[in-house]
Amino acid sequence: MPPASPHNAAHRDRRPLASPEELSEYLGVPDNTLYQWRHRGIGPKALKVGRHLRYRWADVEEWLDAQTVDLAA
């Protein structure tokens, strides 16, 4: 067994990657919106797995946190 390291610890908590369909349902936006965001460079980070787009949930959460708007301002 490899020695424990912070890098290995991060891999133990991995969740399955999200498909565009799963992410669009989660965010409540059409699939095409995700593809447009990716093309324009404004959406969550996407990965190419073969010919397929996939999203890491941690990247999605980070992107969502960056979208927070203070409505009181």
UniProtKB/TrEMBL annotation:
Gene3D superfamilies with a match to the protein in the record: Winged helix-like DNA-binding domain superfamily/Winged helix DNA-binding domain (1.10.10.10)
Entry-linked InterPro entries: DNA-bd_dom_put_sf (IPR009061), HTH_17 (IPR041657), SinI_DNA-bd (IPR010093), WH-like_DNA-bd_sf (IPR036388)
Superkingdom assignment: Bacteria
Gene Ontology molecular functions: DNA binding
SUPFAM superfamilies given in the database record: Putative DNA-binding domain
Helix-turn-helix domain span: 19-67
Region named Disordered: 1-23
NCBIfam families associated with the record: excise (TIGR01764)
Protein name (Swiss-Prot/TrEMBL): Helix-turn-helix domain-containing protein
Organism in which the protein naturally occurs: Phytoactinopolyspora mesophila
